[in-house]
Specification:
Layout (H helix, E strand, L loop, with lengths): L1 E5 L11 H11 L3 E4 L7 H9 L6 E4 L2 E2 L5 H14 L4 E6 L3 H6 L8 H16 L6 E2 L4 E2 L22 E4 L3 H10 L2 E5 L7 H13 L13 E10 L3 H18 L7 H8 L3 H12 L3 H6 L3 H6 L2 E3 L1 H14 L3 E6 L4 H18 L1
Parallel strand pairs: 1-2, 1-12, 2-3, 3-5, 4-5, 5-8, 8-9, 9-10, 10-11, 10-12
Antiparallel strand pairs: 6-7
Helix pairs in contact: 1-14, 2-3, 3-5, 5-6, 6-7, 8-10, 9-10, 13-14
Length: 351
């Protein structure tokens, strides 16, 4: 199991300390650094900045939002970043959620699975430097009633098959990741509750004939973003991740459609999911965070002293995670760097 770092958003979370932390992760031998976007900083700009000042670590978009860009624009950006970084770019894609897709980008959220499948098809076609002709339900290139013509990417990226990842939470979207992508970006991943999710990935791999004689999962990267809090006080560790947990389970979506709330329910935390969402939607985020039970926080994060983290980190590899992407929860850049070092120490301790 490799290590990665989840950098979050520029200006939030890691903020201006992103570069120093990624450089420390590279020094420690971390394999990947993942940069997010929502409706603030964009991922490609931050990744280009990191690419210019690092040399070995893989650089991943976690994620570039599908409703924010045409597939051709995403292919251009991916090819450019892979070229500038010397073949280190990982293209993570996701449909975001209805609030961001429709409220920020003005793109209907309908039929996300079909849109994602076509989007990945076109991106891969463009990166292979084929003339892009596509007649789908959601995308038609070139448009049939105008002067447009099928074009080919003019630059030659180092890898026409650069890895594509999908961020997915629901069972059908996770299966699609197995079918059309090279990796799955997982969030709120609990090793004890992951068998159905990994089974969905495997189904997708088999459906796409991506299997090998040994194992259909060979070559597929399961990247789990995991909050890490190094502390001797488990209660304080729970509190450190509670705001983040409550935001997603309570506030990332409506009462009718919140993928993270549904995930918590599938893990068996129905009562907590109800309570957290009720409080969050009532405008009481502090109370929603207080309602996050320790068992939920502990199932989806690594909390405790280094020795406890070392005891528990192997659960992820045993479950099928191939890259553990560390989200260091600490107040200062120095403390976050210490978390990276602690995890690097803990991983060999458990082997």
């Amino acid at each position: 199991m490799r290590l990665g770092i989840t950098c979050g958003y520029a200006g939030m979370g890691l903020g201006a300390d992103t570069l120093s932390l990624v450089m420390e992760a590279e020094r420690l031998g971390y394999a990947q650094a993942w940069v997010a976007e929502a409706y603030g900083s964009d991922a490609p700009t931050v990744l280009a900045w990191l690419a210019a000042q690092t040399s070995r670590i893989g650089l991943g978009a976690g994620i570039m939002q599908i409703p924010a860009r045409t597939p051709a624009m995403t292919a251009m950006t991916a090819a450019t970043l892979d070229t500038l970084s010397g073949g280190r770019f990982h293209l993570g894609l996701g449909v975001s959620g209805p609030q961001v897709s429709e409220g920020w980008h003005g793109v209907r959220f309908a039929e996300p699975l079909g849109r994602t499948r076509e989007y990945v098809d076109i991106v891969r076609m463009a990166l292979r430097r084929e003339q892009v002709r596509y007649a789908g339900r959601h995308h038609t290139l070139p448009l049939p009633d105008g002067p447009g013509k099928a074009l080919r990417l003019t630059i030659r990226p180092p890898r026409p098959d650069l890895p594509v990842y999908l961020a997915a939470v629901g069972p059908r979207n996770i299966r699609l990741a197995g079918e059309v992508a090279d990796g799955w970006l997982a969030i709120f991943f609990s090793p004890e509750h992951s068998s159905d999710q990994l089974a969905a990935v495997r189904e997708g791999r088999v459906a796409a004939s991506a299997d090998t004689p040994q194992d259909p999962m060979v070559g597929f990267d399961v990247v789990a973003t995991v909050p890490v809090v190094v502390t001797d006080d488990l209660g304080a560790g729970r509190a450190a991740v509670a705001d983040y947990t409550a935001l997603y389970i309570g506030g990332m979506g409506s009462r009718e459609q919140n993928f993270y709330n549904g995930l918590a329910r599938r893990m068996g935390f129905d009562e907590a999911a109800d309570r957290i969402q009720d409080l969050y939607l009532e405008g009481r985020p502090r109370d929603a965070a207080d309602a996050v039970p320790f068992d939920l926080a502990d199932a989806t994060a690594l909390i405790g002293p280094v020795e406890r983290i070392a005891e528990r980190i192997g659960r992820y590899a045993d479950a099928g995670v191939t890259t553990l992407s560390v989200a260091p929860f600490a107040r200062t850049a120095e403390d976050r760097a210490a978390v990276l070092r602690a995890v690097a120490e803990a991983l060999p301790l458990q082997t």
